[in-house]
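Fold this complex.
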Amino acid sequence: MSELWKRVFLVFSRRKPEELDDELRFHLEQSVERNAATGMTAQEARRQAMIEFGGVERTRERCYEQQPGWWWGTVIQDVRYALRGFRRNSVFTFAVIATLAVGIGATTAIFSVVDRILFRSLPYAHDTSLVSVGLTAPIIPEEFMLGGSYYEWRDNQKPFDALTSETGVNDCDLTERNPAHLSCASVEQNFLSTLGIVPILGRNFLPEEDLPKSPKVALISYGIWLTHYGLDPGVLNRPIDIDGVQVRVIGVLPKDFEMPALEQADIVVPQALDESQQRKAEPGRVMYAFARLKPGITSEQAQAELQPVFNYSLNLAPPQFRKEVHLRVRSIRDRQTHDVRLAAWVLLGAVLAVLLIACANVTSLLMARAAQRERELAVRSVLGASRARLVRQRLTEMFLLSMAGAAAGLMLAEILLRLFIALAPTGIPFLEHAHLDLRIVLFSMIVSVLCGALFGVLPALQRPSAVALAARTANSGARAVARRCLVIGQIAVSMVLLAGAALLTRSFSSIEHQNMGMETRGVLSTRVALPQYRYATTQQRMEFYLKAEAALRGLPGVSAVGMSNWLPPAETHESQIFNNISVAGKPRSTDGTGGMVTWRWVTPDYFKALNIPIVRGQGFTEDERRSNEHYLVVSSLLATRLFGEADPIGQHLQPVPQGPWYTVVGVAANVKNGGLSAADEPEFYRLRRSIAEDWTPWNAIVLKTSLAPSAVTPWVRAQIAQIDPTLPIDVETLSESVGKLTDRPRFETALLGFFAFCGLLMAVIGLYGVIAFVATQRTQEIGVRMALGATRFNVLRLIAGEGLRLIAVGGVLGLGAALAASQMLKSLLFNVGPYDPLSYAAVALLLVLVALIATLIPARAAMKIEPVVALRYE
Amino acid sequence: MAESTDLLQGTLDLLILQTLATGAVHGWGVAQRIQQVSNEVLQIGQGSLYPALHRLEYKGWIRSDWGSSENNRKAKFYSLTAAGRKQLAAELKMWDRLSAAVGLVLGRLPEVTG
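Structure:
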């Protein structure tokens, strides 16, 4: 015990240095005495003793080193020394920490978002071997299967361990005491087992439960289990009412369950298709197929091996369409994220570019500081600091800086991530689950610290040269070259970033300012969700909407009330194959599909409400609405394609083979109908007559009003509530819903713009740093030049010329890189080419201007130097 | 030169402890004693002696007191503590095992047995 106390005491007690000196002096004197005893003169005895004794300082050091806790003491010493240095160079310290923070923060935040999109593992046990498989054709954008060939594929395919299907997600209503509007997914019985999903309660479907006549069973999602059944295990085997039918719950899905195509699914039921009927059907039910690859088989191999069954399906397709039907096998992840992948990669690239610039900045700053400190290092070395100690000092500084940078970066990342989630439009998958990834924090920290440490510590590894001690001007020529290269690199990379941001901005503005072919101002759109179980028949639905139309027409300030199943310019709408349209008196084209044609159901006032001009003939009339005839309005684009120069009015069309014939009564101007950034599709309008069969489930009401939309909205709600007070109603202005379509490009543009700004800022700081450094280093030279007759303008040119060269080289390199990189952006751009000269000119101008300012500030300072002061410098 | 005889790692500690086993000695005395006893083979320079003494002291095996030397000078005398005595015994045993083992390997002491 006492031993322990003694040691504790020793750690804290500081030994007086005089004691050791006394001890060593005693030793030396004993040695002198011994020598004297052998007969040497006093002087010789002392001399010999001194020689034998050797260096005292080293012994003293080594004695100190024996003290327990000595090492930690020196660490504290190093830290103190570093902190003192930071305080003295607060600008340097701030610049390094801020650069690290931006680099680490931005990288971490973006990577946390992108990671979920690009690299996330799927919540299925067989994650890596799962693929989505099927046919592609113009009519359905994603790969699909048809009942007519699916079973043939299932029986004859070779590359898969298992093949399964789902027939999509439909609205369904839980009609119990606590009714709710839900989504029900219909799947094949082997769906869960193929993907590798195990219910957390209960069991999977049995094969016999997936037959058309078998008793109804369902798996419920964890969310429904929680909100409707309070996580009660007793829900098992309980019958629940779905759309008025009793269904027995046989299990609960895991918390992280999701459909492979990411549809919302609250309840999963067997699709219960009649297999033998589907086999004969043509084309059969549309379904989506997923498969588990056999071990060692890639998607490409699977695609090749599926050729025989694909040919079977191809033979079922109408001959003229076969050219446009293809086979596709791709990973489920690809299917989920294909439309955001490019944007995700672009963002990742942008943020890595920012990290690169940040690294270059840290490196450059540390190199500048190392050059400044060469003298100090040389002095410390001469005073006896070991090389290890000097390196450790540097490492300590780097460690402190990177810790501070990382801490600030983490905070920044958290803020940025929250900002992204708040600003991001819906439809970016997984964003709401994004969270900071510590691995990424670590990664970006290590990258930036490594490049900093490398250049920060390297100089300390060399033996400090004697030159450094004597040098009046620092001999850091090699390092200055390296810093110039770094600045060139920074300028080039920020040029790439800026060019990308400029292109996206231009593209975004052309999306926003394009002519939509209709009026969005002063138009309200209303959607009412009619519950299936109370409005089960088309008659009931029609009656509701006709009542609503009449009521809304009576509102003050409302000049037109139209209805349609879908509203432009969104991509959701009905569409059909162009070549299916027959024109009376003309043979049908048999050359491929001819692409797709959009169509919608409309009431006569639809054109008036949206201010779509009728360019020929007339729109629909109220009389036509009450007749039993079929009438059609075609868009100009469709009219040209079908009739060329001929007059379309009065022509007869049959849109679907075996369907009714329609009379064309008018030609409407083209409207943006395939989303904001896609090309217009030809379109026709079917008159939604006041006949029950015309009233398919979807319907939106559009109102043209001369009053403020905010004033009309409550009236609309009130009118509809008078008809049925329980209905949920969505009212928004058409401008709002169009605005939502631009959310994605706006978000992407804003993000890239932000990174370009960060990159530019850091590059400019780097440039400024180098020029300022060069200017200070050449102070004396400037003094000499001025003394020899150089004018201030000559000096300005000398220093600014240096900066201009860097800008020019970096700018040209960056321009080349940007031209190459912009190819990647091509499919994100709308109405702007990847080589848009205006964008590049603007970017180049901006970069040169900002860089010039960064150069001129230190150059001006150099110009103002008084020759006398400059000559005495150092 | 005899001084170049490198001491085996840790051997210096053992030599110092052994030297102090007979009573308190100052640093100079320790060096002299080791030199004499080893027939001038082992010469301990102050550069290794004092760090070693300090190390042993921090470990609590020896302790130091100021006293006066034979020629009446102020000197620091080192002596073994109880822990030091234990340590010495342990290190001697260790040394015996080690030297016997090294001897065996070198074939110098064929008949050494436990």
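Chain B touches chain A through 20 residues (CB under 8 Å).
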